[in-house]
Amino acid sequence: MKFFSKITFDKEEVSLNYSYGVREHIFCNIISMTSMDYIFSKEVISHVFSECILWWNYDKKYLKNVSEEIAKEFKLRFFELVQIFAKVIFPHKDMLTYEQKRDLDNIINEIEEYKIKGYLILKHIYNHKDIIYDIKKGLCSKNEQEISDLLETIIYLKHKNFTNIEQIITILIENIMYKIKPLLDYRIYTLSECLKRNIEKVDDKILKDLEFGLKHILTEIMISKKDIDSDVDNKIRCSIELTKLIYILKKYYINKCMDIPKYIIDWEQIFVNENEFSEIRNAWININIEDIENKN
Q1: Phi, then psi, of 113 in degrees rounded to 5
Q2: Fewest Cβ atoms nearer than 10 Å: which of 80, 175, 223, 247?
Q3: pTM, 2 dp
Q4: For residue 87, which of 22, 130, 147, 27 has the smallest C-alpha distance?
Q5: Rounded CA gap, 271 and 108, in Å?
Q6: CB 212 within 8 A of CB 261
C-alpha cells in the first residue's frame, strides 16, 4: 500500500538521448505484474489513476506539432499508459468517482484520436464496442506502424478469447488473398497465431478462402531476376511465415482424419525443394522437429 501511494510518473523527458522514462517504465511494469495478485484498494486505484491523468495531460502535447521522431517516442511511452488502463484501472473502474470516470472517457477518446498503440483494446474492453470495422479499415492503411500496432492488438485479443475472432481470421485471409502490403509477412504470422489457438472454429468457408488465398499468393512470393535485395528479403520472410501456416492446416486435416488437400501438398514440396532457399527449408524442417519433440 505504501509503495503504490508513492508512485509518480516522469514527465516531459524530451531528450531522446536519455533512456526514456526509466522510472515510468519500471512503475508500469511493476503495476502490470502486481495486478495479477495484488488486491487494490480504492485509495490506491484513485492515486494511480490521478498520476495517469497528470502524465497524459503533461506529455500529450508532444504528440502533435513536434518532429516525427519525438511524436513516435511519446506514442511509444503512452503504450505503457494503455497497459495500466487495461490491466489495472479497467478491472477496478467501479472504484473510480464520477469525475474520474468522465476523465477516463475523455482520455480514451484522445488515445484513439492519436492512434496510440493498443487503443482498440481500450475501445473494446472499456466501451464494449465492435472493433471489426476499425481493424479492417486500419489494415488497409499505408502506415506500417499503424498496421503493426493493429496486428499486435489482434494477437492480444486472440489470447483474450475475443468472441469475433472468426471475423478477424477472415479479414486476414482476405489480406493474403489480395496480397495486401505492407507487412504481408506479419499479416501471415498473425493469421497463423489466430488459427493455432482457434482452429476448432474453422468452418468450410474459411478453409475454402484459405485455399484460394494460398494458391494466389504463390505468384506474389516467387522470386524473379528483377527483384532487388529488399524484395528478396520480404519474399523469404513471407515464405518462412507460410511454413507455419501450412503446417497448422496440414495438422488440422490429419487430426480430422481427412485427406490433405493438394495445395497443401504442393506447398510442402516447395518448402523441401533442394533449390529452395535454406532459410525456408530449415523453417519447415524445424517446425516438424519441434512438433515431434512436443509430442514426446
Answers
A1: -60, -40
A2: 223
A3: 0.77
A4: 27
A5: 45
A6: no
